[in-house]
């Protein structure tokens, strides 16, 4: 394949309030500060979205660390890659000298895949190896002010057609919540996500959740643990799903081998981009472990990338990829992402990501912006 020659990397931060606050065991988010990457190359522009939050609560990265590393380390490597850059698949090697900072790497790498799809005039889903025409959608519902408010939210999402309801949980917001939900909906596909809120002293408590027929329990223990999750999984029939702990393919292999989890949530930002996400997907598939695509309250740019990834074969469980309107009064892409009554999103088949970025709107939301160009090439 021909080289991609990147002429400029534009970084910008946009600020966007969420339509509804989102509460997890690690805190409440009411508005997002989002780092967007735009690449100019081969006569087209492509986009990437960094999923790092404002605070280092989900992972070590923040929007500010990602900005710094993207500007000073990663963008220069992309711009000066020369013949080493033939597509998104070149990025892991190009960025390999930089340890960690996976969300920053993913924002740039995914923009390169987005570019490659446009240059080759194929859909991003196709380029990634996707095979699905539609993807199955679930929702992640945050901790609410009361049980009554939660039940109302669930009713809305079930009626909308979503195929799986995931409840954020933490000590004090678990058993009585699952009980009330199962009382009203004995048969819906239900799961929970603790974002590391439990410890070993809670094993007996968690064992009580078996009665609620949960599809999975997501990341109950430490964010960086495999061993104690495997201890817990030994005591449970309910599958554990790992999110935070899985940073790359090797982590997935270790976790599967140790029986730390029986399902994996793949977030493209958490694992440093599409290349590693595909590698995890394949490793899990070979070992009979289903995966699904997680979400990080993305705008339409990250969401469209999640849709493309979710079209791979082993994304066989409904993901946390849902309609734009659940997050934003107005998204930054056109058309916005919609979900059918059957709880599905149609995977775009046209060239690239399949959704147009609303440039004027992005410009209005921008609070800082910088452009990086090749120093080597300017001087040559
Ligand atoms: O653990 O999956 C998570 C949001 C922010 C940080 C972590 C998580 C989440 C979600 C929301 O569950 C998923 C979404 O709807 O985008
Ligand atoms: Mg999670």
Structure description:
This protein has about 375 residues and is an alpha/beta fold. The protein has two domains: about 5-120 and about 355-380, Enolase-like, domain 1 (2-Layer Sandwich); about 125-355, Enolase-like C-terminal domain (TIM Barrel), CATH 3.20.20.120. Helices cover about 35% and strands about 20% of the residues. It has helices at about 65-80, 90-95, 100-120, 125-130, 145-160, 175-185, 205, 225-235, 250-255, 275-285, 300-310, 360-365, 375-380; strands at about 5-25, 25-40, 45-50, 135, 140, 165-170, 190-195, 215-220, 240, 265, 290-295, 335, 345, 355, 365-370. The protein has a seven-stranded parallel sheet. Strands 3-2-1-15 form a four-stranded antiparallel sheet, with helices on both faces. α6 (about 175-185) links the parallel β6 (about 165-170) and β7. α1 (about 65-80) crosses α3 (about 100-120) and α9 packs parallel to α10. The longest helix is centred in the N-terminal third of the chain and has 19 residues, at about 100-120. It is globular, with a radius of gyration of 20 Å. The model has no long low-confidence stretch (mean pLDDT about 95). Magnesium ion binds next to loops.
